[in-house]
Amino acid sequence: MFWIAQGKNNTETAQLLSIGSKTVKKYVENIYQKLGVQTRASAVVRALERLGLLYL
Question: Is 39 buried (19+), middle (13-18) or exposed (0-12) by CB count in 10 A?
Fold first, then answer.
């Protein structure tokens, strides 16, 4: 979630975490489902405003 909030795409996040981009894509899809959102921006807003999960 931190890297999404920093504006990183799946490929960039995968490189930073030393995992595959498809793995990141699946993680992001799971985050969307858990937060009830459909976009990266919505996920960040939900995490910041409603759940207090991110500290930037």
Answer: exposed
Report the number of distinct structural domains present in the chain: 1
Q: What is the mean pLDDT of the chain?
A: 91
Q: What is the CATH number of the domain that holds 9?
A: 1.10.10.10
Provide CB contacts within 8 A for 3, sequence distance 6+: 12, 13, 16, 17
pTM: 0.80
Q: Is residue 48's pLDDT more than 70?
A: yes
Run of H or E residues at 2: helix 2-5
Q: Is residue 7 part of a domain?
A: yes
